[in-house]
Design brief:
The chain is mainly alpha-helical. The protein contains 4 helices and 2 strands. It has one domain. A hairpin with a 2-residue loop joins strand 1 and strand 2.
Length: 95
């Protein structure tokens, strides 16, 4: 049984730097250098990708809150910006 995932191309592309010789169809790996990986490997890669995606989505959300207005306000009181940078740093440390 092969692991299926709607975003399998993203998973293997992220894990293996979009190298040539990899292909997916209908959420399954159909081509891979050295042969299709084991379900165990695929599941581990998917778990790693999902964690990475969750963290990077949160970083992007936090960074998007640092608007020009917030930066201008930080000149008078940097408390919010410092706290936001600490939140972003904490998420980056998880990567």
């Amino acid at each position: 049984m092969t692991v299926k995932c709607d975003y399998m191309g993203a998973v293997i592309g992220w894990k293996h730097n979009h190298q040539t010789g990899m292909a997916t169809a209908d959420g399954e790996i159909t081509e891979f250098p050295g042969g299709v990986p084991s379900d165990s490997d695929i599941n581990a890669w998917k778990t790693e990708y999902d964690a990475w995606k969750t963290i990077t989505d949160e970083i992007n959300r936090l960074e998007a809150q640092v608007t020009n207005r917030r930066l201008r306000e930080a000149h008078a009181d940097p408390t919010w910006l410092n706290a936001q940078e600490a939140l972003i740093a904490a998420e980056r440390a998880k990567l």
